[in-house]
Amino acid sequence: MRLRWAAGYGKRKKEERIRAYLEKFRPDVIFIREPSHLDGRFFDAFRNRCLLVGMIACPTNHPWHWDAHRHDLIFTFTEEYRRFFEVQGIPARILQLGVDERVAGETGNLPKVYDCTFVGYLGQPHQQAKTELMAKVAQTGKLRWWGPKGEEISRHPALEASWQGMTGGLEMLKIYGQSKIVLNDYPDFMQGQSNNMRNMEALSVGSLLLTRHADSIAGLEREGAVATFRDAEECAGKIHHFLQEDGERERIARKGAEVARERCNYRTIVRGMMEAIGEAYEKKRPRMKGWERC
């Protein structure tokens, strides 16, 4: 009983602090990044005071009364999610992932010491296809992998042997910068939409991005900014090809970096976000009671 009470107490204290902060600063917009790890009902008290904007990229994994209809606008990363919300009458916009233009200055001109790298979680039951792909690539001896080990990783001895430890942040970006090829795949629930931060991270450092084919990046492939594969056999074949063809590999990598920095920089993305938020705010404003009347 004491443990349950302590957990409940900590949750209440957290909500009290957030509520005090909101009531002090009285924001026009509350931006809720999911999973927020808060009881969704906490935000109901603010629905008439300001605009509630949500952002969700993957299945929400907290059980506390999450409700999409609580939001006035939702940013998401896949067309499936956007259509799902809009069918229910909830305005939704695709949020483009972006690159920080400062990254190139921190990672540029590093020696290419890795043939092919991947950073991410492998060995999880719900990402079995991705794990099996990486395991087959690891059998070629060309893959170096960093990231958390899932409970099923022991089923793939070659993949486990390629593990280099944990990494993140600037250290991870420098690994990408030192890679001839950065490998990417995406989980099954993305339903053919390749839209994750690994794409942007690889492009931002100027290394070749080799990723599973998806309609969402077909345009980049046509422009010669990325390379794609459709199965493990083709993936291994393209790794072999691009390790032999330095000029072609680096040409694609340079084009990818150019496209990412021109079209996917944060200045452009934030401008679009603020325009969407502004439109939603003006639409809701006549119905708001305002903080002073609550």
Question: In summary, what is this structure?
Answer:
With 294 residues, this protein is of the alpha/beta class. The protein has helices at 2-25, 79-87, 103-107, 128-138, 157-161, 169-177, 197-205, 218-222, 232-244, 246-263, 266-284, and strands at residues 29-33, 51-56, 73-76, 92-94, 114-119, 143-146, 179-184, 208-212, 227-229. It is built from eleven helices and nine strands.
Helix and strand layout, with pairings?
Elements: H1 2-25, E1 29-33, E2 51-56, E3 73-76, H2 79-87, E4 92-94, H3 103-107, E5 114-119, H4 128-138, E6 143-146, H5 157-161, H6 169-177, E7 179-184, H7 197-205, E8 208-212, H8 218-222, E9 227-229, H9 232-244, H10 246-263, H11 266-284
Parallel strand pairs: 1-2, 2-3, 3-4, 5-6, 5-7, 7-8, 8-9
Describe the structure.
It is a single chain. The protein has 294 residues and is of the alpha/beta class. Helices cover 43% and strands 14% of the residues. The protein has eleven helices and nine strands. The strands form two sheets. A five-stranded parallel β-sheet has the order 6-5-7-8-9, with helices on both faces. It has a four-stranded parallel β-sheet with strand order 1-2-3-4. The radius of gyration is 22 Å and the shape is elongated.
Poorly predicted runs are: 1-7
Distance between the termini: 36 Å
Query: Largest sheet, described in full?
Result: 5 strands, parallel
Number of discrete helical segments = 11
Report the C-alpha radius of gyration, rounded.
Answer: 22 Å
- The ordered string of helix (H) and strand (E) elements is HEEEHEHEHEHHEHEHEHHH
Instruction: Please count the beta strands (DSSP E, at least 2 residues each).
Output: 9
Beta-strand proportion: 5-15%
Large-scale geometry: elongated
**Average pLDDT taken over every residue:** 89
Subunit arrangement of the protein: single chain
Fraction in helix: 40-55%
Structural class designation? alpha/beta
Strand order of the largest sheet: 6-5-7-8-9
